[in-house]
């Protein structure tokens, strides 16, 4: 018993070290989305290509899609854009949510860089983003054919992220 | 002395003032003092989802500004505090609450500090008790190896009149010899 006491500091150290080591692996920005497995919130917003055309949550019905939150002021979106073009070429349906952006600048952006989006919804007040629990762009949601959010990724989608996180979910919802 | 106190006061005041200067200032018109207070409590208790450990009141990120605006709007609509908190939790998860509800996953968060405190107190008490026991032990058995006169003086200093008057206690050579043995054994017991 007395011997054991001698080892107490070592034991405490090991336990602490394990905890802290575990903490190194974690991303402090990672936050589980509260909306996973819940339907896309109701909305009625204009489309970027045509201000007079309004769409609502039914656009997510019938076909799986990625919902990508983007804006021209978002630096990481610039990095992400070429990869979204690639995904779109592969036939993946991406719906854009133009988040708190300038419409003219956004249209120009798509003209210059190419448009990977089946359509872009205009959320100039950030109301839709708020309902989605968006806290920064870019964010990408995997939405299944019933309009249910199945996965959320915060940050740039690149080849690694797509293959590791999004693709497995995407394949799963195709069935 | 007075000067240094004054200096400290000024320093403290600067500290306090600088922290208040950090909070974001927005002009909002509240219909009542009560509402202003509720708003204040809500934005200090709700956490900015984008930031590392900042509440909505302190954060100047765009999302926090939006959320403050949203909370303000909901207050004006007459929503209750709980409704507002639920609204945010549905969207951003329990992450946004600085005071999470007590449930299975937050048990550790809520009760571990108390457990730690009790554990610490228990350790302190047991150590103290052992020290006290050893001290009285040492005193009665003269393990400290004090000379007889010193022992008597110590007893006197401690105001232990019983020991001072104890004739047998003074100058009991044999007794002392026993005790040096005893101290030996205690040494090994450790």
Keywords:
heterodimer; A: 175 residues; Glutaredoxin; 5-stranded mixed beta sheet; two-stranded antiparallel ribbon; elongated; B: 190 residues; mainly alpha; 8 helices; 67% helix; disordered C terminus
Summarize this, please?
The complex is a heterodimer of chains A (175) and B (190). Chain A is an alpha/beta fold and 175 residues long. Helices cover 41% and strands 22% of the residues of chain A.
Topology:
The complex is a heterodimer of chains A (175) and B (190).
Chain A: H1 2-6, H2 8-25, E1 44-47, E2 50-56, E3 65-70, H3 75-89, E4 94-99, H4 103-113, E5 119-123, H5 127-132, E6 139-143, E7 149-154, H6 159-174
Parallel strand pairs in A: 3-4, 4-5
Antiparallel strand pairs in A: 1-2, 3-6, 6-7
Chain B: H1 2-22, H2 33-45, H3 62-76, H4 81-92, H5 107-141, H6 148-157, H7 161-165, H8 173-189
Oligomer: heterodimer
Main sheet specs of chain B: none
Number of helices of chain B: 8
SSE pattern of chain A, N- to C-terminal: HHEEEHEHEHEEH
CATH architecture designation of chain A: 3-Layer(aba) Sandwich
Strand order of the largest sheet of chain A: 5-4-3-6-7
Beta-strand content bin of chain A: 15-25%
Please tell me what the overall shape of chain A is.
Answer: elongated
Mean pLDDT of chain B: 76
CATH class of the largest domain in chain B: Mainly Alpha
CATH fold type of chain A: Glutaredoxin
Major β-sheet annotation of chain A: 5 strands, mixed
CATH class of chain A, anyone?
Answer: Alpha Beta
The number of distinct structural domains of chain A comes to: 1
Distance between the termini of chain B: 49 Å
Proportion of helical residues of chain A: 40-55%
Count of spatially separate domains of chain B: 2
Which residue ranges of chain A are poorly predicted, with pLDDT under 50 across at least 5 consecutive positions? none
Let me know the CATH homologous superfamily of chain A: Glutaredoxin
Label the CATH architecture of the largest domain in chain B.
Orthogonal Bundle
């Amino acid at each position: 018993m007395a011997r054991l006491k001698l080892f107490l500091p070592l034991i405490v150290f090991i336990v602490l070290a394990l905890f802290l080591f575990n903490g190194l692996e974690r991303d402090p920005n990672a936050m589980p989305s509260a909306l996973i497995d819940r339907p896309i919130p109701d909305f009625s917003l204009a489309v970027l290509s045509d201000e007079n055309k309004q769409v609502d949550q039914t656009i997510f019905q019938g076909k799986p899609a990625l919902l990508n939150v983007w804006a021209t002021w978002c630096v990481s979106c610039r990095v992400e854009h070429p990869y979204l073009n690639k995904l779109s070429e592969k036939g993946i349906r991406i719906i854009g949510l133009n988040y708190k952006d300038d419409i003219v600048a956004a249209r120009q952006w798509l003209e210059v860089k190419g448009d990977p989006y089946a359509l872009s919804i205009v959320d100039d007040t950030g109301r839709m983003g708020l309902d989605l629990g968006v806290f920064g762009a870019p964010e990408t949601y995997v939405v299944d054919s019933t309009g249910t959010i199945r996965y959320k990724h915060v940050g740039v989608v690149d080849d690694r992220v797509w293959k590791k996180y999004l693709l497995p979910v995407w394949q799963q919802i195709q069935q | 002395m007075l000067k240094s106190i004054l200096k400290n006061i000024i320093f403290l005041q600067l500290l306090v003032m600088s922290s208040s200067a950090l909070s974001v200032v927005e002009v909002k018109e509240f219909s009542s003092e009560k509402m202003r207070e509720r708003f204040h409590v809500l934005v200090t208790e709700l956490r900015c989802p984008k930031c590392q450990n900042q509440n909505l009141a302190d954060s100047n990120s765009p999302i926090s500004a939006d959320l403050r605006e949203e909370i303000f709007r909901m207050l004006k609509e007459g929503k209750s505090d709980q409704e507002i908190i639920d609204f945010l939790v549905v969207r951003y998860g329990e992450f946004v609450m600085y005071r999470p509800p007590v449930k299975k996953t937050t048990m550790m968060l809520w009760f571990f500090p108390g457990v730690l405190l009790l554990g610490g107190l228990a350790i302190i008490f047991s150590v103290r008790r052992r020290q006290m026991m050893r001290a009285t032990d040492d005193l009665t058995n003269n393990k400290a190896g004090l000379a007889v006169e010193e022992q008597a003086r110590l007893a006197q200093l401690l105001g232990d009149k019983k020991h001072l008057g104890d004739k047998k206690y003074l100058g009991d050579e044999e007794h002392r010899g026993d005790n040096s043995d005893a101290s030996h054994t205690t040494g090994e017991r450790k």
